[in-house]
Amino acid sequence: MGKYDKHFIFRDKPNLKLPAYRHEIPKERAHRIVYLDKEVFPGADFYVEALWFWPREVKPDEPTGVPPHSHPFDEVIAFFGTNPDDIHDLCGEVELWIDGEKNIIDKSFMAFIPAGIEHCPLKIRRIDRPIFHFTAGPGEMYE
Question: What is the domain partition of the chain in residue ranges?
Answer without folding.
Answer: 26-137
